[in-house]
Design a protein that fits this description.
single chain; mainly beta; seven-stranded mixed beta sheet; four-stranded antiparallel beta sheet; about 0% helix; globular
Length: about 120
């Protein structure tokens, strides 16, 4: 059974920082490109960042320089370090595991991030 369990969301003031974690189980971690997506109320889900097993990263332009994605293969976990947070970063953040070769696309339940004073 595949599980992606996000944690670390919460309420933070503008300009603050937060680190999200996503622990994966039930998959061979190295087979998957891992990623973070987010969905704000009334908007479509959008890419935040992805990271391959080779640590190649890809970011949405508006996140470059503020967000950092990383992965720990020993813990089957990815992280999203977010800094200089803005109210428009408020959204539910979802963890994703994708393998084009295996045609697998898994999602976590999401964790709420609210940026507000």
């Amino acid at each position: 059974q595949v599980q992606l369990v996000e944690s670390g969301g919460g309420l933070v003031q503008p300009g603050g920082s937060l680190r999200l974690s996503c622990a994966a189980s039930g998959i061979i971690f190295s087979d998957y490109t891992m990623g973070w997506y987010r969905q704000a109320p009334g908007k479509q889900r959008e890419l935040v960042a992805t990271i391959t097993d080779s640590r190649i990263t890809n970011y949405r332009d508006s996140m470059k320089g503020r967000f950092t994605i990383s992965r720990d293969s020993a813990k089957n976990t990815i992280y999203l370090q977010m800094s200089s947070l803005k109210p428009e970063d408020t959204a539910v953040y979802y963890c994703n595991a994708f393998s084009g070769g295996l045609r697998h696309d898994y999602w976590g339940q999401g964790t709420q991030v609210t940026v507000s004073s």
